[in-house]
Amino acid sequence: MDTSTTAPCRSNSNSSHKPALPAPTVAALAALLARCTSLAAAAALHARLLRSSRLSGPPIIANCLAAAYSRLGAAPSAVALLLRAPANRFSRNILLAALLKSRDLPAARDLFDTMPERDAVAYNSMIRGYVDTGRADEAFRLVRTMRELGVRPSDFTFSILASAVCSARHGMQVHAAAVRHGSAHRSAVVGNTLIDMYRRVGLSKYALRVFRSMNQRDIVSVNSVMSVYKDDGQSSQLFECFQSIRSLGLSVDEFSVSTALSMCTDDEDLAKGDQILALCVKTGLLSHLIVSSAVIDLLCACDRLADAVRFFQGMAAWDSETCNAMISGYARSGTMEPALSLFLLSLRKGICPTGFTFASLLRCSSCFGLMEQGTQIHALVSKLGFEDDVIVATALIDMYCKLGSLNHARILFSRVCVKDLVLWNTMIIGLSHNGRGKEALQIFWQMLKSDIRPDRITLFGVLSACSLVGLVDEGMRLISLFKSNYHVVLGLEHNACVVDMLSRAGLFSEAVDFAENKLIKCNVAAFSNILEACVIQGDFDMAELVAEKMVKLKPRSSLPYIVLAQTYGARRKWDSMARMWRAMEDQGAKKVQGYSWLCIKNEIHVFTSSQILPHGREVTDAVLDLLFWDMMDHKYAHGCVDC
User: The whole model's pTM is what?
Assistant: First the structure.
């Protein structure tokens, strides 16, 4: 082989005089900065640009570097860079976005007001900043100013506004504006946010109309409509929509199958859930943690806790959602200790708890009267800084109300700055169930002054409060108020409250008439409440009338037979009394046994009025003796003497 021709090349390659590489173009630098995936890479590029003095050139390079810093979570670095760099319209928009990302809203507004020209990008950034900080009114005012100055809103403007809507009236206004600008039908992003907006404010029919009118639909559109059907409990429509995904030329994703599995959980439809689970295995979607948590929810709801535990333990990785699903499953099945053990294990693994985690644990404590565990969880909530979370605050207030600690509940309620409807309802119902009807009504009027729109649950709470304090006229006025102002239609639970309210007030004839007209399918339960009220208030003539009505309905409850038998016995109608006892036996009516329970060292001991059950009898006797002597030594005994 002749090497003479290759020698000069080898000599040139080893020479110290290398040819100078051409400087990267502005377009190449901009593309490189746009592809930065880590803060370290952006900082390294920043250092090279400083050494080569490229940042003193066209502002586009400084703009791209600042945009990279802001995108990678270093907004203060972006702000510092742009304050020293030459400014143009693009750099001001990037600086505005960086200031808003740094949560420096006053500085962002000062910059926005001094900008020589403000385009839709600047307005969108400022509107998003107001929405993210909970100042939706300021955002809507800025939109009006934007339109008055002739700046045309973009699709992104309408999507931001739709995400900030919290009332039906504002939602319709945003939708109308989007239709006028042609964004509602043309843009899938705007259509999707409008669907989600109508779902949030409870106008599901409008959400479906938006979906049908969209020119372009993607998988997000279908998922949003499936969420609407799920919230409305329309399982057949949801599964029809799920099956139509393929015919639309789309592919199911983790959100589609998780929504479908959640609907199966609500319906406790394990057969359909197994089919979707098979689809997840086939398509590989089971590896998504959001799908795994939905599977755990389904198995727990269908009383397959052991299968849920095996599935959970076989997962390659856990996150807060899957741990929450498993903790909630334990809570649903009434097993407190495994729930707490899993919670502690997740903390050791570095999995941060969420509001839903604490809500599930607190539900366990409230269901089983475990005050000690509840207060320990509350201490951890305060330590981790979750006390301001409205979901956690609601769960804490619900727990304290169920455990009878209303002072703790009221203190927590007063500390919550931004109260939502669920929190107000929880406080109203908690006070009502603890016999504080007047306080519950006061909270209700405070809620209305706070511009919170009540719902069916609110009406149930205030009717229960009116029933407790005997405010029949007030209760009827509230029913009219909810019908006329809030379009709340009375349901079975509300009608049952009305019957209870009339019965407590001694208006038995009115209660019977109301039950016969409004509670046709629930006559027995309504008559039982009336009958108990009659017996308590000593109106035995009405009690006999109501009991006879119940006997004609052939209930499984023994209450009407017992009342009639005792009434006949008091009047020496021995044949009629014997006839009632025989009728009760013939109908198979059974007397409901009352149970009491006592928690001792995380164990629940159950006993009846006649005999303590074998399990834990000795320790239960000892604790009851201690409670008795404590009552004798303290104010309970003194109160009895004073009486």
Answer: 0.61
